[in-house]
Amino acid sequence: MTANIVELKGVIKDYPLGKLSVRALHGVDLALVRGEFASIAGPSGSGKTTLLNLIGCVDVPTQGQVVMDGRSTGDLSDRALTELRLFNLGFIFQSFNLVPVLTVAQNVELPLLLQGKLSGAERHKLVAAMLERVGLGSYLKHRPTELSGGQRQRVAIARALVTRPKLVLADEPTANLDSVTGGSILQLMKELNTQDGTTFLFSTHDADVMKLASRVIRVHDGKIVDDGRARPSAPATAAAMHA
Amino acid sequence: MITLRIALNNLIASRRRTMFLGAALFLVTMFFVLLLAVTGGVLDNLVRAATTISSGHVNIGGYYKTTPSDSQTIVLEVSKLRQAAKDALPDAVRVVDRLRGWGKIISDQGTQQMGINGVDLTEDAELMRILALAPAKDYLENPPNPELVKGRIEDLSKPGSLVVFASTAKRLKVDVGDAVTLRTETLKGQSNTAEATVVAVVRDLGLLSSWASFVPKESVRELYQLKPDVSGVVQIWLKDIDRSEAAMGELRTYLDKQGYAQLEHDGQPFFIKLLQTVPNEDWTGAKLDVSTWEDEASFLVQIIAGLRAMSFALIALLAVVIVIGITNTMTIAVRERTREIGTLRAIGMQRGRILLLFLCEAALLGLLAAGAGGATGALVASLVDAAHIPLESVAVRAVLLSDALHLVPRAVDVVLAVVALTAISAVAALFPSMRAARITPVNAMQSAE
Q1: Nearest CA to CA, how far is A99 from chain B (Å)?
Q2: Which residue has the higher pLDDT, B275 or A165?
Q3: Exposed, middle or buried by CB within 10 Å (0-12, 13-18, 19+), for A145?
Q4: Is B203 exposed, middle or buried, given 0-12, 13-18 or 19+ CB atoms closer than 10 A?
Q5: Which residues of A touch B349 (CB under 8 A)?
Q6: Beta carbons of B340 and A99 less than 8 Å apart
Q7: Whole-number pLDDT of residue B255
């Protein structure tokens, strides 16, 4: 097993815009090490989301390679990419993106059901334990609409982590939260990173949020201008060593 | 399971949309079941009327030709034939013979050409159970007591008696107790007449009532100067009417082995064969003709086929409206739920499962709404049938083959309606479901920048 969970090699991403083509990423090289708690920072339109989409295997590069867990995503079918996401990645969205018609427990159980590896009893046990960890042990039967923004994001974190993914991608996870709630969410993510060694990569505008990251990758005009390798965190280093 | 759960929860969450589409599906299914119940009622009336007035479940008719161009409907040695029917068909519950005559009934104020059935009430008791006395308003103009019923069907056992249907009594302007003249042509081409008294006027049993009347067997024998062991047709009723076709085949084979000459099977009623087919065949002597009740009522079966086709056409039209409604609503739902679909795709749901999710939602809506509509339709049909609502229009009576609204909600029709509407719902959702399946997980991330 390599220390890098994902590698981007000379990645270019173009988007069609009418008859024209807009280049969102200009030959990006990047490697994420197992156990990192990394942040992508940059202004709007800098290419943060494009980078997250490519690393999250929801999009493929126009040129170059994205290698996830040893496999180049550009060579994979839609079905294989979906499987890769299901078994390797966790997603946390800015707007939480919970399924509104499912309860908290059902939302967290969803990726486990899609994986189809565990029995009902095993799934329920895992879901209850995960929700307990994020402080929502007594909210199993609630609907997302009955929760505050911070609680919803905790559910999203539980959903992202319940399958024990290799990499969790968080897209501006605190953007829709007040500063106190946002801080507690980041603290929770940091704790999970420290305790489990789960790799986190999140995008943000917020300088305070960036301070918590062990590595800040700065993006500007589709290029990485600083990949912040100077500040490896303790858990990241430990996880990389034990990988 | 999760697919069904999400689909069901989405239906519950989108109450307004679900209620709107569900109500449409409910009403169309209920309407469909009611239409099919009407058709079922007509079929039931037809079976009842056909197997009362003109046919058993299976019949052994016969044609006798003295020259190649004439033909009469008689069977010889009828007692032997009745025994043959019992031997060939052990599941026969009743075997009787009737005489078939065709002639004029002449009253003081009218004449009517029609079938004159010679029956023996002592062995044809079922006839009495089916026939019901008609109220005076059904055949008299401005009767003093419109609901009054007169006469006795049992008196048909008396010599010189006649029972007619209300529509015939109306045309002939006769009442119970009136005398009429029966005029027929004998085998030798001579006109023969007999006097008869109307002993009962019975309720119409649809179109078949228009050309049927009943007299004692002896009256027909006298009119046609027939010997005692000669009759018109042997009628056989089986335990299960659905076995009619098979029983006909068995009876044909048996009669073949017994050496009886038979006509090739022809799914036409006997009078068409008598007037058109048999006179054009180049043979003389006697031949038997085994038929089913469906053959004898084939001209009426077309009414049922027509009613059924009309029901399906009407429902097809309504189904188009349903399809447009579901397609539009689901398309809007897919657009509204783009981020949710993107999220499901991002966390690992395959395209096929997204397709299934939306199809399930539509099919579930179809199943629940159509199921409720089907059950309600069956219930309403049963209640309407139990109410015995009289039909005032003669034309409607003729088409529905009854003087009261008779609906038969059959389980198979309810299942057919529910399955059809559920399938239509799913098919209507196919296009939006395919659009949903094409949504990429990138859509879930769109809010990032």
Answers
A1: 6
A2: A165
A3: exposed
A4: buried
A5: 82, 114
A6: yes
A7: 95
**pLDDT attached to residue B407:** 92
Do the Cβ atoms of A100 and A143 come closer than 8 Å? Answer: yes
- The pLDDT score that the predictor gives to residue B376 is 97
Quote the ipTM score.
0.87
Please report residues of B whose CB lies closer than 8 A to that of A78. 351
Look at residue A96 and give its three-state secondary structure: coil
Question: Is A101's CB within 8 Å of B2's CB?
Answer: no
Interface test with B, best of A54, A93, A176 (most B CBs within 10 A): A93
Pairing of strands B111-119, B212-216: parallel
Residues B397 and B207: beta-carbon distance below 8 Å: no
Tens digit of each residue's pLDDT (9 = 90 or more) over A96-120: 889 988 999 999 999 999 999 999 9
C-alpha dist (Å) from residue A130 to A122, A126, A140, A159, B6: 12, 6, 11, 8, 22
Question: Which of these, B184, B121, B129, lies nearest to B154 by C-alpha position?
Answer: B121
CA distances from B156 to B96, B125, B250 (A): 16, 11, 34
The C-alpha of B93 sits at a distance from chain A's nearest C-alpha, in angstroms, of: 59
pLDDT reading at A1 higher than 60: no
- Whole-angstrom Cα distance, residue A243 to residue B41? 78
Q: Report pLDDT digits (tens) over A54-98.
A: 999 888 899 999 998 888 988 889 999 999 999 999 998 888 889
- Residue B239 has, within 13 A of its CA and on its CB side, a CA count of 4
* Domain chopping of chain B, boundaries: 2-48+299-448, 60-289
Q: Span A220-234, mean pLDDT?
A: 72
**Under an 8 A CB cutoff, do B351 and A78 touch?**
yes
Residues of A with CB under 8 A from a CB of B: 44-45, 48-49, 52-53, 56, 58-59, 78-79, 82-83, 85-87, 91, 93-95, 97, 99-102, 106, 110-111, 113-115, 159, 171-172, 203
Q: What pLDDT was estimated at residue B444?
A: 59
Weakly modelled stretches of chain B, pLDDT under 70:
187-188, 443-449
User: Which residue is it, tokens 């009469």?
Assistant: B72
Whole-angstrom CA distances from B410 to A182, B31, B415, B422 are 63, 14, 9, 18
Beta-carbon separation of A49 and B343 below 8 A: no
Q: Is the dihedral of CA B274, B277, B279, B284 positive or negative?
A: negative
Q: What per-residue confidence (pLDDT) applies to B225? A: 84
Are B61 and B117 within 8 A, CB to CB?
no
| β-bridge pairing B58-65 and B285-292 | antiparallel
Cα(B351)–Cα(B355) distance, integer angstroms: 6
